[in-house]
Specification:
The protein is α/β, with parallel strands linked by helices. The chain has 21 helices and nine strands. Helix 1 packs across helix 10, helix 16 packs across helix 19 and helix 17 runs antiparallel to helix 18. The radius of gyration is 45 Å and the shape is rod-shaped. The relative contact order is 0.12. The structure holds guanosine-5'-triphosphate and magnesium ion.
Length: about 550
């Protein structure tokens, strides 16, 4: 496999293109912001920013940093690789305070060096120092001599740390005395486990190690690296003083510079790292949505709390009372006038209420009821518990927060639904009016029949000649009128009762439907939308992190 192909494969990480992975991480940062731990999001956001910036800068250059403890020989190795005596090598420790950059190849990658924040006076163009004797094998290399990371000088490790975060390839310079120091392994090498493809390790000062112990020491370095999760990272034994191993190091660096994959591989490692950190915090449970069953349950509970069943029942009873009054036998209908109207009692007897009715309804509706309010809260809490089951704590918290954020408005808004919804109870049904006309016709017939009979009785009582009474099929007409008028009226009243029961139930259902629609709108605005917003943010984060992980 050619170096180029291998490099390209490494750059692609586990398959997804790097730009897409950075985009995924950016999406996760955006949706996780304010919801997940600030440090974790901040770290990922830094990676997105850095990756974006580095990808816009020169892809022709590979930034390689020499990092390590003070005295390990970074500056000496820098000089050995450049073939120039550029970096200050000192006896007094720490020596290097400022980073120096040496660029191989024609021209200075100014934007890249600016981005790395390397001062002008610390930039060296190697070709310009060699009087035209160009060595093109390392063209594109930007070699950095870093200050030590274990310094007593805080500014040194800040600078080293900053640049370690920005370079494409890291060469860790160890020395025989300090190569096993826990400080470097715990603070620097272990956290770099995802970056082993962009790392080289150098065991310098090898000339100071007796020849028979050298390979055992290199093996020991490898063993420690394996424990750090860095198995496979090349380890080279060098002596910056005698030049031993420097040619091999130059070759190893040159190969990485040549295949130009380090930039993307390093960034892919950063993205993987940040995505893994965020995933550990954000969790990996499947995203979910509020389904219609959840929403129905919520509307049920809110309707109950708002008093919808109470109002619905009042609508049913009021319709029945009014219809009975309209269709009953005129005598009993008149008597039922004295029965109270359930809707009027709830101040909901009109379609839409005036101000006074709103005020009255507020005091009479049960939303102020502590038990109902508790029911609403526990339903919303149960809904949240259900929906966030299996999600990581930050999301459980954000969903709960979102679901209760508008609780204060809930009571008022539900009250408004009850008092402003047109319940559709104005006027009695048309058929009732027809029945009423018929009832009156029958009533008048009975009365006329009754009066007629009374007249006949009176003339008979007064021994006056009785006028002839017409008959129908052998039955006297006034008797028929009285009996049929009363009987038909009562039968009609009874039949109407059946119809009333159906009609009042249907009106109650219509009122309930309208009220529930109103409650559903409130539930949607105050609970469903905020909770769905959090669930959508979780999905965005989850999907973004999946893309970022590649
Ligand atoms: N014997 C031997 N001495 C070396 C080797 N490399 C560096 N030295 C010496 O070790 C001392 C420190 O070397 P530097 O190159 O300044 O080390 P450094 O890592 O840059 O140190 P800081 O800049 O302080 O972080 C100097 O006296 C070098 O001459 C080596 O391979 N063998
Ligand atoms: Mg130095």
């Amino acid at each position: 496999m050619s170096g180029l192909v291998a490099g390209a494969k490494r750059a692609l990480g586990r398959g997804a293109p790097l730009d897409k992975r950075v985009g995924g991480l950016e999406q996760a940062v955006e949706s996780g912001h304010g919801r997940l731990d600030e440090d974790v999001v901040e770290h990922a956001s830094g990676v997105v920013e850095r990756a974006g910036a580095r990808l816009r800068l020169s892809a022709e250059h590979t930034v390689v940093a020499l990092a390590g403890a003070t005295g390990s020989g970074k500056s000496s190795t820098f000089n050995a690789l450049t073939g120039l005596d550029l970096a200050e090598v000192g006896v007094r420790r720490p020596t290097t305070s400022w980073v120096t950059a040496c660029v191989w190849g024609a021209g200075e990658p100014t934007a890249l060096l600016d981005w790395l924040d390397i001062p002008q006076r610390h930039r060296v163009l190697r070709d310009s120092m060699l009087d035209g004797k160009r060595d093109s094998t390392l063209d594109g290399l930007v070699l950095l001599d870093l200050p030590d990371h274990d310094s007593t000088e805080v500014s040194h490790h800040l600078e080293a740390h900053r640049l370690i975060g920005m370079t494409d390839l890291m060469v860790w310079v160890l020395d025989p005395q300090k190569y096993a120091d826990a400080a470097i392994h715990d603070r620097f090498l272990k956290p770099m486990a995802t970056h082993k493809d962009v790392m080289l390790v150098v065991l310098n000062h090898i000339d100071e190690v007796p020849a028979d112990r050298r390979s055992a020491m290199v093996d020991d370095v490898r063993r420690l690296l394996e424990l750090d999760g860095l198995a496979g990272v090349p380890v080279l034994a060098t002596s910056a003083r005698t030049g031993e191993g420097i040619a091999e190091l130059r070759k190893a660096v040159g190969k990485r510079v040549d295949d130009k994959a380090a930039v993307r591989t390093r960034l892919a490692g950063d993205v993987s790292d940040a995505a893994a950190r965020m995933s550990a915090h954000s969790g990996d449970a499947q995203p979910r949505e509020l389904d219609t069953k959840d929403q129905r349950q919520l509307v049920d509970a809110l309707s109950g709390a708002a008093g919808v069943p109470l109002v619905t029942d009042a609508v049913r009873r009021a319709t029945a009372v009014r219809a009975r009054r309209a269709t009953g036998w005129p005598l009993t209908a008149w008597l039922s006038k004295f029965k109270p109207d359930p809707l009027r009692r709830l101040h909901l007897d009109r379609g839409t209420s005036g101000k006074d009715l709103v005020a009255a309804a507020r005091s009479s509706m049960p939303t102020t009821n502590v038990v109902q309010q508790a029911r609403v809260e526990s339903t919303v809490r149960d809904l949240c518990d259900d929906i966030s089951d299996g999600l990581a704590q930050p999301w459980v918290r954000s969903i709960r927060l979102a679901s209760t954020s508008r609780f204060d408005d809930l009571g008022d808004r539900l009250d408004r639904v009850i008092t402003t919804t047109d319940l559709g109870v104005a006027g009695t049904p048309l058929w009732c009016r027809a029945v009423r006309v018929l009832q009156w016709v029958l009533f008048v017939t009975a009365v006329v029949g009754g009066l007629w009979l009374a007249g006949l009785a009176a003339t008979a009582y007064l021994q006056m000649p009785t006028p002839g009474t017409p008959d129908y099929e052998g039955f006297p007409v006034p008797t028929l009128m009285l009996v049929l008028g009363v009987v038909a009226g009562l039968v009609l009243a009874l039949l109407s009762r059946l119809l009333i029961s159906v009609a009042s139930k249907s009106r109650a259902r219509r009122a309930e439907r309208r009220l529930r629609e109103g409650v559903a709108l409130v539930a949607d605005e105050l609970v469903v939308t905020p909770v769905s917003g959090e669930l959508a943010a979780y999905r965005q984060t989850w999907e973004g992190l999946r893309t970022a992980r590649g």
